[in-house]
Specification:
It contains one helix and four strands; from the N terminus they run ββαββ.
């Protein structure tokens, strides 16, 4: 039996962001990318959704919505 680590991709808006490090949790990856995209400081994580052998995590922000 062979065990392979699944590749992760993080999505933010229309961007596909590479995995900043397999040792990072998705929450830590969100924090990592918040340095570049400040709106991610209030984002939540959806997923993973498995597509073509990859784990897709989506960063969802609620900035700009009211109510």
């Amino acid at each position: 039996m062979e065990i392979n680590q699944m590749h992760r991709i993080f999505k933010h808006k229309n961007l596909k962001l590479p995995d900043p490090g397999a040792e990072m949790t998705p929450e830590r990856a969100l924090s990592f990318y918040a340095n570049t995209y400040p709106e991610l400081t209030v984002a939540r994580i959806e997923g993973p959704v498995i597509e073509e052998g990859k784990a897709i995590y989506t960063f969802v922000t609620t900035l700009g919505t009211k109510g």
